[in-house]
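Entry, Tuesday afternoon. Goal for today is a structural model of the target with guanosine-5'-triphosphate bound, before we commit to ordering more compound. Inputs were pasted exactly as handed over by J.K., no edits. I checked the ligand SMILES twice against the vendor sheet because last time a stereocentre got dropped in transcription.
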Amino acid sequence: MGVREQGIVIRTLGSAYDVQGPDGVVRCVLRGRLRRQRDGPQRPVIGDHVEFERVSPREGAIVAILPRRTALVRREPLDPSRAHVLAANLDQIVAVFAAVPEPDLFQIDRYLAVAEANHLLAILCMNKMDLVEDRESFRARFAEYEALGYPVLYTSAVTGTGLEALRERLQGKITAFIGPSGAGKSSLLNALQPGLALKVGSINPRTGMGRHTTTHSELIPFDGGYLADTPGLRDIGVWGIPPEDLAVCFPEMRPYLGQCEFSDCLHLEEPGCAIRRAVARGKIRRRRYESYQRILIEQQVAWGGLHE
Ligand SMILES: Nc1nc2c(ncn2[C@@H]2O[C@H](COP(=O)(O)OP(=O)(O)OP(=O)(O)O)[C@@H](O)[C@H]2O)c(=O)[nH]1
Ligand SMILES: [Mg+2]
Ligand SMILES: [Zn+2]
């Protein structure tokens, strides 16, 4: 047995992992038991604190993953009954969307719900503001998220608009940039950290979508913390919380929880539902409630109808 050292996984490269050790980066493979369950929940992800043993000055093997303080987990799109851990030990996420074409609010709600389900702070970032003509009315459409307590930042990686406000939120924190392909996550990181030179992709002119340029997650030391660039997600789903707890992921619903006639109310068709009453009275936005319903239904489909 060699000497065990500790480090943090900063890059995942298929079967290899770059671990920031006490004296620099060590490229590691997985050893033994960890290797056999490489695709399971115990696969190292960026942000993981690990124990490793060196085989040469710059090469080693990960022998253990230390307990995770937090994990950003989403449902696996191809196998919704499985979890996919994107990053460990994060403090917060920045959910990046392109302002043009205008983002789908239901999609934004899903990202926010995933952050809430993982106990992570969420910041919304509307990027490509240089392409927006009427900025004032654009901003007005996202004011509802500020009212819910989510900071909303308006940025341009091209002109530098909003980067100072973004930078302030990142200081000393471990932050993952997540969002659809082509939203400009890598571009924003490049703009924040000159010299970084992360690869940036083109947009498919027909679909307006990105081309999945970033293929590996990476942690970049930044201002006393770390930034994580991540590959664009085709979709994101809430994982790991039972359907009856989904309403907790909607901050505006929390004041009404525990007030429904039935204690196991899912706030759908049940009589005496305090959430639906709040929607009817305009205390909860109908669109957000619809988001709740959609996510709940997806969750139930994913779990094969948990409540049948
Ligand atoms: N006009 C404009 N274009 C931008 C901005 N930010 C990024 N882009 C462009 O959008 C395209 C995609 O940018 P990326 O940074 O690769 O997007 P990404 O979110 O990292 O995409 P994936 O790695 O595929 O997930 C590139 O052509 C960028 O030049 C912006 O603020 N304004
Ligand atoms: Mg990228
Ligand atoms: Zn209810």
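The mean pLDDT is 90.
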